[in-house]
TrEMBL record, chain A:
UniProt GO MF annotations: dipeptide transmembrane transporter activity
Main location: membrane
Organism superkingdom: Bacteria
Protein's membrane topology: Multi-pass membrane protein
This protein's GO CC annotations: plasma membrane
Places the protein is found: Cell membrane
UniProt protein name: Peptide ABC transporter
Coiled coil, from the record: none
Family: Belongs to the binding-protein-dependent transport system permease family.
Keywords per UniProt: Cell membrane, Membrane, Transmembrane, Transmembrane helix, Transport
ABC transmembrane type-1 domain ranges (all copies): 95-304
From TrEMBL, chain C:
Gene Ontology MF annotations: ATP binding; ATP hydrolysis activity
Phylogenetic lineage: Bacteria, Pseudomonadati, Pseudomonadota, Alphaproteobacteria, Hyphomicrobiales
Name by which UniProt lists this protein: ABC transporter domain-containing protein
Residue ranges annotated for the ABC transporter domain, each copy included: 7-251
Organism: Devosia riboflavina
Entries under SMART domains matching the protein: AAA (SM00382)
Similarity comment text for this entry: Belongs to the ABC transporter superfamily.
Gene3D superfamilies: P-loop containing nucleotide triphosphate hydrolases (3.40.50.300)
Amino acid sequence: MVQFILRRIAIAIPTLLIISFLIFLLQVMLPGDPALALAGEDPSPQAIAAIREKFQLDQPIPMRYLTWVANVLQGDFGMSIRTGLPVRDMLIQRLPVTFQLALMAMILAVLIAIPGGIIAALRPNSPLDYTVSSFTLAGVSVPNFFLGIMLILLFSVTLGWLPSGGYVPFASDPLGSIRSLIMPSIVLAFATSAVLMSHTRSAMLGTLNQDYIRTARAKGVSEPLIVIKHALRNALIPIITLGTIQFGELLGGAVLTEQVFGIPGFGKMLVDGVFSRDYSIVQAVVLVQAIIFLIVTVTADILYAVANPKLRHQ
Amino acid sequence: MAGTFVGRPQEGVLMVETQASGASSSSPLNEKAALAVRGLTISIPTARGPLHLVEKLDFSIAPGKTLCIVGESGSGKSITALALMRLLHNALDITAGTVDLNGTELLGLSNKEMRKVRGAGMSMIFQEPMTSLNPAYTVGNQIVEAITTHRSLSAEAARTEAVRLLREVNIPAPEQRLDAYPHQLSGGMRQRVMIALALANNPSVLIADEPTTALDVTVQAQILELMRNLRSRYGASVIFITHDLGVVREIADDVLVLYAGRVMEYARAQDIFENPQHPYTLGLFAALPNGRSREPLTVIPGLVPMVGQFPKGCRFSTRCALATEKCRMEQPLLEDFGKGHRVACWYAPIESTRP
Amino acid sequence: MSDMLFMNVHDLVKHFKVANSSDVVHAVDGVSFSIYRNETLAVVGESGSGKTTLGRLLIRLVEPTSGAIELDGQDISNLSDARMKPLRRRIQMIFQDPYSSLDPRMSVEQTLGEALAIHGLAKHSRKERIAELLTLVGLDPSLAGRFPHQFSGGQRQRIGIARALSVEPEMIVGDEPVSALDVSVRAQVLNLLSDIRARLGLTFVMITHDLGVVRHSADRIIVLYLGKIVEIGAADDVFTQPRHPYTRALIKATPDPFRLRREATEILGGEVPSPIAPPSGCRFHTRCPMARDICSKEEPALETRKPRHLSACHFAHEVVPPISQEPPPRLYQQRLDIIRAAYAGKDT
């Protein structure tokens, strides 16, 4: 098992290197000159050159890559071209926000999806099952921003129960912080739970038809135990993988949702970075997203192996 | 008034009489039954009314005896087994009959009461040892579950009991095997585990649905031997479902030959092998490859008819070489030809009516 | 059975690597034998014996690790695909599960037409040929437009046989061709196979675990255990006078409706060991009731016990013949004769 985990991590490292190089290259190839963007209106050639030198834009590409990697490894993501602040500080500020949002959305999604999927699988083609199917369809097809705006209209504008946007840091006001993220997490959980639910339903339908379920019934095991202990335990094996990867996607930042609710998260950081051609920020965000995603897929594989005795004993 | 007054007790007496005679005569062995099935009918509801997959099935098993239900695919043997456990698929219904297990009428029990019977009074093992155990739990966990579902034992006592059961079914190093997952065991070992599960609460009836079909012949021989030993040790009655007449010879006390949901022949095993009477039973024997001759095998032409396409008369009449107009029009009754040897054929025994 | 050699297999080995491990499955581990024209050769064994792999090696569905397969004196074990193609037509295979070996989206006509096209039969004559093939395997040619799911298991096996026959092969390898079928249908297919074999003069290799089927149809038998031949000989010799304790145990373990129950002591203990780490010496010694010291140390050679009857056992002469079958009871025989006559009269 330890060997499996080590091997899985070893495979991830070259992947990470390739991704980091691609991220770096994409940045270089982007149209638009950041030095021009920074230098303001009608800059003198000297000013542009100075900016180029300061941000090492004049160095050859492989050199810039190596310097960048070396810096990143020391936690230095460079300075924001726009604000002049260290990108690392921005990351430290934004990541917890996105993490909190992702966590809340994921918990909500799991709470909706797993019971919903089970109920649908227990009574296939019943009205309940159709309700679940419609929910899934809606979750997949309703755009996030649209749902977000609708929620704001209802809960903030009409009812006035929840703030329409913004973020209260968890450390300063935990309850207020959760309140500020309720609507965005509902928006994110909607689509996430839809996918998760339809997968739970089909996985449960699959396991409920297995021979070992019949064995459990023949032993006299009660129905709730059969559903939870025998069917769900096996259905969860693929669901865990899916859920982990969905969580990874949420951690990558929800660009539109964060934009709609004005949440200073990871996604918003990326959007702002792109609009201002702030290379260091875009590079940093995309790189961190890639790292998160790699960690998440490795975790998903490990969890899969842990949940599946057949793999655990190899 | 007087008429009704007299009539009631008479009716009652009559009922008792028929029940008593029915109970004894439907077992070829004329002994007290551990399990008695009467008129069992399993149907699938359709828009044009129910179709019977199994119709008016009568049989009983004495304690400690083995009844083999023999039939090809589509005969209804597996759904009969599931019906006895009340584990039929939702789409199927038991539309008539009684299932009496040691005096308890199972079809009248609530779901909760029936759960207490499953795995305790009556248990079941299945054909596919590879998929019949839950891959996510250890063998020990699954045996302990079978024990504690019906008995309140401490975790430790249940584990000791599980080890004992594994030893009973001749699994080497049972203490270690308890922590093994199903995928770490061979097919033969898994089937032994299934038997241990089924025996966990000392059932009076054990239903085995083709338990050796998926196994190698040398392992099949071991499992059959094990089942014979356990039957005499535990005194459980066994319903053994198979399509293999060789296996029947090895294990059966009584034999029920099922065809398209109807009993064709029901007799003691010895009678089936020495004095078979129904053309279908004989056809099965004739179709069996044996070492005695290289002559072409006798072929029963065609296929078991599908549900809904059963003939009006004898179910076997569409494929029977001896069938007459009467066979095609009228369903023969299961008649006793002596010593409880019952045959559903207008022309049994065939040598007396045939030229 | 004739004495004309069709195929010669020499020291054939197939090892499979286990994924993510240095383990090797010794599926077939040095087998040598001949196949004669027009004979039915049965390959018998339990799981792990390598019988399925051997069948696939014979038709070059898998590549051998080493060894030679000679067809008409030419070693075909290393031929390129291009040079193998004309030879493939000569050897065809039928499978256990007729359903999974037929493409569910292709009608019978398409399935058979494809086989005919691959081997270059002109299009205009295909339809006639398909009708001819279906008639040959006892199917109504008017069913040619139907799809596999519209047929029963026995009918699908007939389609599989028709497909194999479509290219006029000289040899057919059947991998458990009747194991998935019900008793009455199995008899239909077995009769069909023996009829076709006789009419078309085919050589037939039947891979099976079912000794009842073997005894009925095989001329010669190869008994495999963990990738090695333990015994090979004429069917009658092997059944009445096996020269290997494993063969004897297999015969004894096969349920037979007309044999007394066997004694408990005669049941072979244990299970087939893993082909990843086969036992030393004689591979059967871990389960053999006759095993002695030498058996775990020295591998017995496949030696001739009588003409064309070979076995690999240090104590072959000690193997006691299995008890023969009981004669069938009188009443049983009488009624069976009536039934046989009745069905024969119906001309099935």
